[in-house]
Amino acid sequence: MSNPARPTLGVEEIEKGHESIARLRAEVARAVVGQQTLVDRLLVALLVRGHVLLEGVPGLAKTLVARAMARAIEASFKRVQFTPDLLPADITGTLIFDPAGGKFNARPGPVFANFLLADEINRAPAKVQSALLEAMQERQVTIGDRSYPLPDPFVVVATQNPIEHEGTYALPEAQVDRFVMKLLVGYPTKEEELRMLALYLDPSQGDLPVERVMPREALQQLTSMVARVHVDDRIARYIVDLVGATRRPAEHRLPQLAALLEFGASPRATLALAHVAKGHAFLRGREYVVPEDVKEVAADVMRHRIILTYEAAAERVTPDEILRQVLAAVPVP
User: Fold this and answer.
1) What letter would DSSP give residue 245?
2) Which of 56, 154, 243, 259 could covalently link to 150 via disulfide, CB atoms 3.0 to 4.6 Å apart?
3) What is the CATH number of the domain that holds 252?
4) Burial of residue 142, with CB atoms counted within 10 A of its CB: 0-12 exposed, 13-18 middle, 19 or more buried
């Protein structure tokens, strides 16, 4: 629901913001072929100050999209390859003794960046994952006896490979809930792959042909605009009903899901769904949220927030199949 003390967006503001988004999309498209849904979802995460978990096989441009967007937005970018021997200090930073001054000085880790790519996050043990996820939630890092705020914006793009399980550590359900979205990255189409190959074989293309098209101040203005996107009371009830249907499916004419759902989505899913729907509406050039915005992003927001039973695993039921039934059953306002 909108805040009465916060004025709603005007048409001119929306048009100006949409033009900025269009320029950013076009610039990222110079380096990234296809994956438009992935680009749009990362833009939404950036606009709502959320973090994203990407799941897909290697070679699907997950790193490239994050690097291209960071370069186009005048934002710092750091990449960390997660490994089993990684330590929390390798992410957050540590204290280094200065012999000349006779004291310890803080050396910030790679988490102090606008875009942090946590590559194959499930290859690191739980204590390293927890250090990163705590920074994501608190947006600050404690080194020694002092806390240091993280830069704004601060977006973590974490990846995990779904086809490898040797030497991996599954993210705990309570921690994965801190990602505003989990995106499933698929293969490109034949036409996209041909364009990708042509771009790769072109000797005139540089390493990353992306230029800055959006200063950080403009990004902050867009973030403020998204916060003012209107959410009607009926849309808010629709969001609550969708999330509630994953907890109490029988009350929403879905008794067949009761044996498949161990735990439904948390209240954090309700907040995330509202925020992401607002970002999606803004990308579509609207100053208000419609039910289609909620339905479009519902799976991305909730697929990692519901826990299925062993019976569902035995029947090979996926979270997306559960959510499709939920979206079909809950009345649309």
Assistant:
1) H
2) 154
3) 1.10.8.80
4) middle
In this predicted structure, what is the pLDDT of residue 203?
Answer: 66
- Give the pLDDT confidence score for residue 281 in this predicted structure: 93
Structure-block tokens of residue 85:
């021997």
H-helix segments, 7-116: 11-29, 36-47, 62-72, 89-92
Task: Give tens-digit pLDDT for 280-294.
Answer: 999 998 889 999 999
Question: Does residue 37 form part of some domain?
Answer: yes
State CA 254 to chain mean position distance: 29
Domain end (from 156, 188, 223): 223
The pLDDT value recorded for residue 4 is 46
Q: Count CA atoms within 13 Å of residue 70 on its CB side.
A: 23
- The predicted structure's pLDDT at residue 324: 95
Residue carrying the six token digits 């997950």 = 62
Q: What's the pTM value of the predicted model, to 2 decimals? A: 0.87
302 and 179 both lie in a single domain:
no
Closest among 91, 31, 17, 90 to 66, alpha carbons compared:
31
Q: Which of 2, 154, 185, 189 is nearest to 78 (CA)?
A: 154
What residue ranges of the chain have pLDDT lower than 50?
1-5
Structural domain including 237 reads 229-329
Q: Are 266 and 301 in contact (CB under 8 A)?
A: no
CA–CA distance, 65 with 81 (Å, rounded to integer): 16
